[in-house]
Design a protein that fits this description.
By secondary structure, the chain is α+β, with helices and mostly antiparallel strands. It contains 4 helices and 5 strands. Strands 1-3-2-4-5 form a 5-stranded mixed β-barrel. Helix 2 crosses helix 3 and helix 3 packs across helix 4. The longest helix is centred in the C-terminal third of the chain and has 14 residues.
């Protein structure tokens, strides 16, 4: 068995529920809007801010056990779809809800990479509101993450704050 850790929109995947998924925390990393989608959630003229993992803090997410025979297929599914070069796959200790610790594979953001960066939460919210890609809008991207966290009884201050602003947004 191999443990895998999901922290963004893939937490909403029904496929993961077949593999003993449970709430977990990745210490030493936190969500930040570090990457940009110009295909799935955004377009070149309006890239969608995407969540990555930056050092510091803690990141609540979902851990699941991949059976050895399914490991390759699940690893391919969890590889970032866009901007693969901006992430690296690492083994990190995660804390499961029952208090135990296991090592899991997780994709963290490469530091110092160039690309879309959002300077503050206002810029993130504006980027999410403007983004529209082949699978949906930036607002739907954050809603997927927010609802997955909520489903498992997890909170993330960044996602909570951004989602509250997006949910309250009204056209002028």
């Amino acid at each position: 068995m191999t443990w895998l850790f999901a922290y963004a929109e893939l937490m909403g995947e029904h496929l993961l529920r077949s593999y003993g998924v449970q709430a977990a925390v990745l210490p030493g990393y936190q969500r930040r809007f570090l990457h940009g989608s110009t295909l799935l959630w955004g377009a070149p003229e309006h890239p969608c801010p995407l969540v990555g993992l930056a050092e510091g803090g803690t990141c609540p997410g979902l851990a699941f056990k991949a059976p050895w025979l399914m490991r390759r297929m699940l690893l391919r599914r969890l590889v970032p779809t866009e901007n693969r070069g901006e992430y690296r796959r690492v083994h990190r200790a995660i804390e499961l809800r029952d208090g135990s610790e296991v090592r899991a594979l997780v994709w963290v953001s490469r530091t110092g990479e160039s690309g879309p960066r959002w300077t503050d939460e206002n810029a993130v919210v504006e980027g999410l509101l403007a983004a529209h890609g082949t699978v949906g809008r930036g607002v739907e991207y954050v809603r997927t993450i927010f609802h997955a966290l909520e489903l498992w009884g997890l909170r993330d201050p960044l996602i909570d704050s951004v989602w509250a602003r997006l949910a309250a947004w009204r056209p002028r």
